Amino acid sequence: MTSTALARIPVGVVVERHKAKSPWLDFLCRPVAVLAGVPATAPWTVIRSAGDVTTFYAGEAVIELHRTETANYRDNLASGTPKLWVVMRPAEREVGFDLLFVTADPAEGEALTGAGNDLVEAVAMPALISGIVESFIALHHVEQSFFKRQRDRSTSGPPARGAGGSEDEG
């Protein structure tokens, strides 16, 4: 994302890794929570380990809020279960991923799910972050009216036929 963010929210990300039931993978990893604020803990610190499941503090990310995306943030909050999208990229490390970023923009989050090897997972938005996003919308949202483009009627006559040909050729 560009540096035109008007607000930046530091967050911590929690990731869960569990043994896979697959002959092709040893473990599956997925983000399970975003923390409001950043704990004083090193990235990829084990929080809990029980059986085949290990929970890690993956590290710090920053949610950037842009005034041009306020309609998307508003739709996210209006959904009743606001979400944050956590993006992680495969890496050569024990857990197997690097934390890239977190976004509150559902359009951006959904767009990232379609391509590449990045792991994109939606998690619940904490109430404190939801309140910050709601305040940001109240300060920066400008309702965009729908503008229907009018057809240019300055040309007279019928539209041109296919390139290079005429009806009389044959």
What does this structure look like?
The chain has one domain (7-140). Strand 5 and strand 6 (97-103) form a beta hairpin. It has a four-stranded antiparallel β-sheet. It is an alpha+beta fold and 170 residues long. The longest helix is centred in the C-terminal third of the chain and has 14 residues, at 127-140. It is built from three helices and seven strands. Helix 1 (70-78) packs across helix 3 (127-140).
The largest β sheet comes out as:
4 strands, antiparallel
Share of residues in strands: 35-45%
Write down the domain tally.
1
Record the strand order, biggest sheet.
2-1-4-3
Helical proportion, percent range: 10-25%
Number of helices: 3
What's the shape?
A: extended
Q: Which class do the helix and strand fractions yield? A: alpha+beta
Round the Cα radius of gyration to an integer and report it.
23 Å
Order of helices and strands: EEEEHEEHEH
* Uncertain residue ranges: none
How far apart, in Å, are the first and last alpha carbons? 56 Å
Query: What is the arithmetic mean of pLDDT?
Result: 84
Tally of extended strands? 7
Record keyword descriptors for this entry.
extended, 170 residues, three-stranded antiparallel sheet, alpha+beta, four-stranded antiparallel sheet, 3 helices
Give the helix/strand layout:
Layout: E1 7-19, E2 27-36, E3 45-50, E4 53-65, H1 70-78, E5 83-90, E6 97-103, H2 106-112, E7 119-124, H3 127-140
Antiparallel strand pairs: 1-2, 1-4, 3-4, 5-6, 5-7
